[in-house]
């Protein structure tokens, strides 16, 4: 173990270890790297680079409507001695949670289906979302439109998040990613647009996304062969939300075990 997470991360350690299955510091994810990437990057202290606010696209963040308040329903008055009426279960099924289904970074030619993170070594040919449970009520990480951090990760391989790795290892070239657009499609047939405004190199914890207080998107990939501790994280902020064609939003995922 490299270090402990922040106070928030610490409270989530057991769940992160169980659900993510990949251990970075306390989350499984960050301990895994791409075994096909040649040459491990030297371990350095984390580097954070942000987009100059003057260069950022100023757009309102998509608001997440609050649920309509509803007070407790008072039972109708029943004459004394009258047996209670049978309780009829509500036949209406609960809506399924909206999740990310596809991630596209046009400038880097990244286009991947997104699936739920597994409990072992990350799969290939897809990106995965981190879904570790932070409590019985909600996960530690969110999905687009939930007003929290959505965390997507993938291997640093060709056809996956390899282009992020190629720029990140050159350091000076990493700045080119600032201002790039990221498209995330969701299962409710929406297209969420984000702008990359920060990159972080040699990261060994999940403190950043766990401390998010609003809508954010985080992308993670490796910095070297399996066992390389540091990871690259890209932090993006919302620009807009629009309707999407089902054919675009629901790609067929064909994950495979990485060889």
CATH architecture: Beta Barrel
Basic shape: globular
* CATH superfamily descriptor: Sortase
Q: Largest sheet, order of strands side by side?
A: 2-3-4-5-8-9-7-6
Report the major sheet. Answer: 8 strands, mixed, barrel
Which range does the strand content fall in? Answer: 25-35%
Integer tally of domains:
1
End-to-end Cα distance, whole Å, is: 26 Å
Number of strands: 9
CATH class: Mainly Beta
Q: Which parts are unreliable, with pLDDT below 50 for 5 consecutive residues or more?
A: 1-28, 32-43, 56-79, 133-137
SSE-based structural type:
alpha+beta
Write down the secondary-structure element order. Answer: HHEEEEEHEEHEEH
Helix percent reads: 10-25%
Q: What is the residue-averaged pLDDT?
A: 76
Q: How many helical elements? A: 5
CATH topology grouping: Sortase, Chain: A
Topology:
Blueprint: H1 7-11, H2 13-20, E1 47-50, E2 100-105, E3 110-116, E4 127-129, E5 149-153, H3 162-168, E6 181-186, E7 190-203, H4 207-210, E8 216-222, E9 231-243, H5 246-249
Parallel strand pairs: 3-4, 5-8
Antiparallel strand pairs: 1-7, 2-3, 2-6, 4-5, 6-7, 7-9, 8-9
